[in-house]
Amino acid sequence: MTSLTSLTSKIMISKNKLKYIHSLEKKKFRTEQGVFVAEENKLVADMLHSFECELILAKPSWMATQGDIPVKELLEADEEDLKKASFLKTPQDVLAIFRLPEEQAEDINPAEELVLALDGIQDPGNLGTIIRLADWYGIRHMVCSPDTADAFAPKTVQATMGALSRVKVYYTDLPVWLSQQAKDEISIYGTFLDGVDMYEKELTSNGVIVMGNEGNGIRPEVEKVINEKLYIPDYPVGHAASESLNVGIATAIICAEFRRRQR
Questions:
Q1: CA-to-CA distance for 207 and 215, rounded, in angstroms?
Q2: What is the rounded CA–CA span in Å between residue 216 and residue 9?
Q3: Long-range contacts of 230-236 (CB under 8 A, 24+ apart)
Q4: Is 89 left (phi over 0), alpha (psi -120 to 50) or beta?
Q5: Beta carbons within 8 Å of 64's beta carbon, 6+ residues apart
Q6: What pLDDT, in 10s, does the model give residues 63-104?
């Protein structure tokens, strides 16, 4: 990659360039162009060595902290430039456009690792939180149904706080993919009100943990292939409690217990 000095230029950012950046708020254009947007200083720095970078708009102060920057086009920007380009209410010092990853869900091996599967998670904030949780608990692969929120939408990328540089997210026909894992005798876990108390259940160090939609939970066609039903008990037993847990909180509880068993 060319050095920072020869790449940097201070020119007026064109209307066409701004229009292109703004178009990437929509999944249709991200898919067509094969790219996504990331903002904020640390988040972009974290992603620079995990994704191929097409474009960076940045203040000179941010550039000075990075050394040589692996990017095809590097444009020096001031605060006004970043305000025009940014999706944030309060932009920081850098905006970057990265290539979308091309990995396939078939490359994952739940026989050797713990994998998260998301069935219809709709809220970008919830998805971003779950990706951060996966990163915290050393879960490196996440398989999502096609109707799960887009991990590479600007709001979701922001919510991951850089965890996308370490957690690979795949979209596929979830019942079909899970059915294949079940045929291979992989443990597929899901949470249900009629499940077994997770604290009394033997948990494996590999397999798939399925988390369901915020309002409807795990859909019936996915439930059919789940072979290990778990229940997160409230405490104390029998007291009046909320009807359900936020999916991000439930994921944290489940992942924490799985990892605790491995210590």
A1: 25
A2: 51
A3: 230/189, 230/190, 230/191, 230/192, 230/195, 230/196, 230/197, 230/198, 230/201, 230/254, 231/191, 231/192, 231/193, 231/194, 231/195, 231/196, 231/197, 231/198, 232/191, 232/198, 233/197, 233/198, 233/199
A4: alpha
A5: none
A6: 999 988 999 999 999 999 999 999 999 999 999 999 999 877
Cα separation, 216 vs 219, in Å, equals: 7
Contacts for 170 with CB less than 8 Å, ≥ 6 apart: 103, 104, 105, 108, 141, 142, 143, 144
pLDDT of 11 reads 60
Angle CA 95–99–102, to nearest 5: 150
First to last CA, the chain: 42
Q: With DSSP H G I counted as helix, E B as strand and the rest as coil, what are the percentages for the chain, rounded to 5?
A: 35, 25, 40
- DSSP-derived 3-state class of residue 153: coil
Nearest in space to 209 (alpha carbons), one of 159, 126, 141? 141
Tell me what pLDDT residue 5 has. 39
Q: How confident is the model at residue 234 (pLDDT cuts 50, 70, 90)?
A: confident
Question: What's the pLDDT at 1?
Answer: 44
pLDDT, averaged across the chain: 91
Distance, in Å, from the CA atom of 8 to the CA atom of 58, rounded to the nearest integer, reads: 10
- Residue 143 contacts residue 131 (beta carbons within 8 Å): no
d(CA 223, CA 54): 41
Number of other CB atoms surrounding residue 55 within 10 Å: 18
Q: What is the per-residue burial (b if ≥16 Cβ within 10 Å, else e) of 208-221?
A: bbbbbbeeebbbee
Instruction: List the structure tokens of 174.
Output: 């979830």
